[in-house]
């Protein structure tokens, strides 16, 4: 794992490419605390901050090919580099290092840009082809590693984080109101849009090639599902489970490849427990595990974590996260996410990454991706119940099923069938709506926009983020099963845009820690997309085939436990023990009016409601965290950039 930066284009934009590159990579020094380097040529430059994990002694970057014709700056890991290296040696290639970085250079010599199709890994890299004067940017299939770019003075600038781009002369931080609206509706901007006007994100599974004054951005891989009416292969559940187990084991095995120790996160849920159990059978020494607990009963999973520690015999470290802990680090969290967020959930992971880093670890395995790939989220079950209710809208019995979905929300137990049906939108949304599964979530989140200022509403002019989402859906989407449509929305939108970005990569890399995700091995993702829906969501039982395939790996209590999504206290984190001074400042009327994004009187009422500990629901919690994080983002990025611009003038 590392941080990369660079440029391609007219060198006249700046006087000293090396100095600029050093300024850019220093802005993201946390991503690579071990080494750094720069490369400057006519019309191109690459910078690199290194977190050394593979090829410790000889993996320095930017790395040139033996001929000097190719140069790469690379962030991430190619987990199948051993097999690729052996194949390339058999074809006559000679290697000078033991790093996976050099494998990409040789593979590009053989295949050109198509080399990315051979890579099994989490990566974002820039490769300069000196002879062709071609700059190629690439991002991994699932969007694990970030890559952003902007244009200034006819030159392309790119980096792992936007902080680095803001060091480029002429690039200023300005809010994109449509990006903000998408966050307050969908939780994330739709790539390539970001919250920064004029700064774009290279979407997952895409290449960007700049050559001969032409720029091309195109996908090299697409998440696909079978047609709804396609015939089932008729494979038995045991046969499917056996293949799943083999793929997951191999995905975990190759993600243990490193020249440093690899640990594992242990949440107490099925996914991280399975990954840790597989890893514990492979590592030569006792596996090191890390977990986080909460002082709030509804969020804490410590008991299940300790069951797994005892079952696996791991060397374990844990910490307890309080509401005040979340409030204390939240400004740093927003600084690293580089965007507003609607939940505090990234904050505890920031603390957990710090724990693993302090214990001397650079790499951890995690269970992210299993819920998207094997239909584990409540939203999948909820959508199934909503469709079931829509077939008999007059039924008073069917809405009772909603109570079974959310046992951790005791308030639902006392509600009438009519309330439950109305609350979950049963019968409200047409079942042919392409966003049917997610409409209740999008409506609930979009309700937070009632706090937008009149000026922001005017700038948006009735814009609807969900229309942009629909227009971005693949052409075959309408032919997929409803469960697959819902899985696609989670996997292609929320997973890279929020889960991997805000909760995983950014929180880990804030402490120089690399997360690895066996469930996001593209071979496993492609396999799972073909698994019959009834093996993933069986009745209302989530991740059925995963549970069957791994039931010998974990205690029965872990497999059988009710799904509990990872959550953290939201508005209560800031109000339980009195408002921190920075919250009073950034959510005060003067600061709200100065930023101009929210309605100051409405925010004052929300703040008053939360501080007197009145009951808050999804909308109020999302609005509180969203407004606070937006205000923190505005102060950190746009105000700071504006001050720098004024000072430079």
């Amino acid at each position: 794992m590392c941080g990369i930066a660079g440029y391609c284009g007219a060198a006249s934009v700046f006087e000293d490419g090396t100095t600029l590159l050093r300024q850019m990579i220093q802005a993201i020094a946390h991503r690579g605390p071990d080494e750094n380097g720069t490369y400057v040529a006519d019309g191109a430059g690459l910078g690199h901050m290194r977190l050394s994990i593979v090829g410790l002694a000889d993996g320095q970057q930017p790395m040139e090919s033996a001929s000097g014709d190719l140069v790469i700056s690379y962030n991430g890991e190619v987990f199948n580099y051993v097999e690729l290296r052996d194949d390339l040696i058999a074809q006559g290639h000679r290697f000078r290092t033991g790093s996976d970085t050099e494998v990409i250079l040789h593979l590009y010599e053989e295949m050109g840009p198509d080399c990315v199709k051979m890579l099994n890994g989490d990566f974002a890299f820039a490769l300069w082809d000196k002879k062709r004067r071609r700059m190629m940017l690439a991002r991994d299939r699932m969007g694990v590693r970030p890559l952003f770019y902007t244009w200034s003075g006819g030159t392309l600038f790119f980096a792992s984080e936007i902080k680095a781009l803001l060091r480029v002369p002429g690039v200023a931080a300005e809010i994109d109101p449509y990006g903000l609206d998408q966050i307050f509706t969908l939780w994330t901007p739709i790539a390539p849009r970001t919250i920064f006007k004029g700064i774009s994100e290279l979407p997952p599974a895409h290449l960007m090639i700049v050559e001969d004054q032409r720029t091309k951005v195109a996908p090299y891989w697409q998440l696909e599902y079978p047609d709804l009416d396609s015939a089932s292969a008729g494979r038995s559940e045991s046969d499917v489970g056996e293949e799943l187990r083999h793929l997951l084991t191999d995905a975990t095995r190759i993600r243990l490849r490193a020249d440093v120790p690899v640990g594992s996160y242990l949440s107490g849920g099925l996914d991280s427990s399975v990954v840790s159990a597989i890893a514990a059978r492979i590592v030569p020494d006792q596996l090191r595990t890390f977990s986080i607990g909460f002082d709030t009963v509804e969020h804490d999973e410590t008991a299940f974590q300790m069951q797994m520690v005892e079952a696996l015999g791991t060397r374990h470290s844990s910490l307890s996260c309080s509401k005040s802990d979340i409030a204390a680090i939240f400004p740093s969290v927003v600084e690293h996410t580089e965007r507003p967020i609607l939940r505090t959930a990234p904050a505890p992971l920031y603390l957990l990454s710090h724990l693993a880093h302090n214990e001397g670890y650079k790499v951890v395995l995690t269970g992210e991706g299993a819920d998207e790939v094997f239909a584990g989220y409540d939203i999948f079950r909820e959508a199934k119940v909503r469709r079931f209710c829509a077939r008999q809208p007059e039924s008073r019995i069917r809405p009772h099923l909603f109570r079974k979905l959310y046992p951790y929300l005791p308030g639902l137990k006392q509600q009438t069938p009519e309330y439950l049906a109305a609350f979950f939108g049963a019968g409200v949304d047409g079942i042919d709506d392409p966003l049917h599964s997610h409409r209740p979530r999008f409506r609930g989140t979009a309700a937070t926009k009632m706090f937008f200022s009149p000026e922001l509403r005017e700038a948006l002019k009735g814009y609807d983020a969900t229309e942009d989402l629909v227009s971005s859906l693949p052409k075959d989407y309408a032919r997929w099963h409803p469960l697959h449509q819902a899985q696609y929305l989670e996997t292609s939108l929320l997973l890279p845009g929020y889960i991997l970005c805000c909760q995983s990569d950014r929180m880990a890399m804030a402490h120089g820690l690399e997360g690895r995700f066996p469930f996001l091995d593209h071979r496993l993702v492609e396999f799972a997309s073909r698994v019959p829906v009834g093996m993933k969501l069986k009745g209302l039982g989530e991740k059925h085939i995963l549970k069957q395939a791994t039931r010998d790996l974990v205690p029965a209590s872990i497999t059988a436990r009710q799904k509990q999504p990872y959550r953290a206290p939201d508005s209560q984190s800031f109000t339980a023990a009195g408002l921190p001074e920075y919250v009073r400042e950034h959510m005060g009327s003067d600061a709200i009016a100065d930023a101009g994004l929210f309605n100051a009187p409405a925010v004052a009422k929300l703040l008053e409601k939360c501080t007197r500990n009145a009951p808050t629901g999804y909308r109020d919690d999302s609005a509180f965290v969203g407004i606070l994080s937006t205000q923190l983002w505005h102060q950190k990025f746009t105000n700071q950039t504006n001050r720098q611009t004024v000072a430079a003038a």
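Confidence is low (pLDDT under 50) at residues 641-649. Residues 618-648 form the longest helix (31 residues).
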